Amino acid sequence: IDLAQNLVEKHIPSPTKDEMRLALEASLNEMKSMGLTGVHDAGVGVTDFELMKEMADQGKMTTRIYGMISGAGETFDELSKNGPVVGYANDRLFLRSVKLYSDGALGSRGAALIEDYSDDPGNKGLLFATEEEFTAMIDKVVQAGYQAGIHAIGDRGNRVILNAFENVQQSRGDQGLRHRIEHSQIVSVDDIPRFKELNIIASMQPTHATSDMNMADDRVGPVRILGGYAWRTFLDQGSVIAAGSDFPVELSNPFHGLYSAVTRQNHEGIPVDGWYPEQRITREEALHGFTLGAAYAGHMEDLVGSIEPGKWADFIMIDRDYFTVPDIEIWQIEVLESWVAGEKVYSK
Questions:
Q1: β-bridge mates for residue 317, sequence order
Q2: Which structural domain range is residue 48 located in?
Q3: Residue 109 · residue 123 · CB < 8 Å
């Protein structure tokens, strides 16, 4: 369903390398103004990585990038020839993960569900491959020493990927690669414990809940939604949550995500008690997800994610106290300065 965009995209001329360089520079400027001292780029191509290395070599990489190779096909074959890239240019650039897709999006009804969509009988969405094919893809990635980060939104999309991870673990064992499911959005309540059992990181984006809350109940109904956007449930069972934005699907501003995680409200404070408020998390837990949780998901918790002796001095200064301001002000917090490796890279 979501691949219909390819009918148009295939007629759009590919950007030149200079255009891509300008786009990368613009995105880095955007990131540092948002207080993002590091990002995970979920879909890096060959030219993308060449440009990233050039900028890192020139000292222009003002935000650390943890790259995820786009797919397990030709791009992966090319970029994985020399193995994972770890800590290039003083830890400014990493390439040790691979991004795959199991299904589409919930809004378009492309996410793969176990049962029909509640508002579209006869439609269960679509998987991009079979369980056997996903198992083979993950196995290829694991043999090369890479983490797999797999987009899964529907409960069937998540279950098939969990099955595939389990299949590979049975044959290869858990090699400490810290595999992750990107979004972990609508998950059967029976499958949520499997994340912990299989050591799968739930890479989740809090603003998806507040963006989707006007349609998610319609899509999956009152029972399946109980396994949706279930941050509290994941944390309470001891799973690692890596919080992010899913930019450019959502805005890159991390304070929007922190606000959504803590309140489960829109920017007008609606619903008053939050959408499924039992799944709210604390300010401390939300901040951990965006800092140490994300660092752990990138094998970087010994380098970044907190201010400690021996770690890089990556930090930001903001215009108000995140821990004490009223909830409604969290999303309004502004970044005054961003520092990477002890160097000020942004000032408002």
A1: 337
A2: 2-32+40-312
A3: yes
Angle between helices 131-143 and 155-172 (to 10 degrees): 50
In a domain, 165, yes or no: yes
Domain at 291, CATH number: 3.20.20.140
Ordered per-residue pLDDT tens for the chain, 348 residues: 667 888 999 999 999 999 999 999 999 999 999 999 999 999 999 999 999 999 999 999 999 999 999 999 999 999 999 999 999 999 999 999 999 999 999 999 999 999 999 999 999 999 999 999 999 999 999 999 999 999 999 999 999 999 999 999 999 999 999 999 999 999 999 999 999 999 999 999 999 999 999 999 999 999 999 999 999 999 999 999 999 999 999 999 999 999 999 999 999 999 999 999 999 999 999 999 999 999 999 999 999 999 999 999 999 999 999 999 999 999 999 999 999 999 999 999
Give domain status of residue 322, yes or no.
no
Position 47, amino acid: T
Q: Which residue type does 81 have?
A: K
Evaluate whether residue 192 is within a structural domain. Answer: yes
pTM (2 d.p.): 0.95
Residue partners of 47: CB distance under 8 A and separation at least 6: 17, 20
Q: Quote the CA–CA distance of 219 and 202 in Å, as a whole number.
A: 22
Residue 173 neighbours by CB under 8 Å, 6+ apart? none
CA distance 183 to 245: 10
The total domain count for the chain is: 1
Per the CB < 8 A criterion, the answer to whether 38 and 64 are in contact is yes
- 129, part of any domain: yes
Point out which residues pair with 346 in neighbouring strands: 338
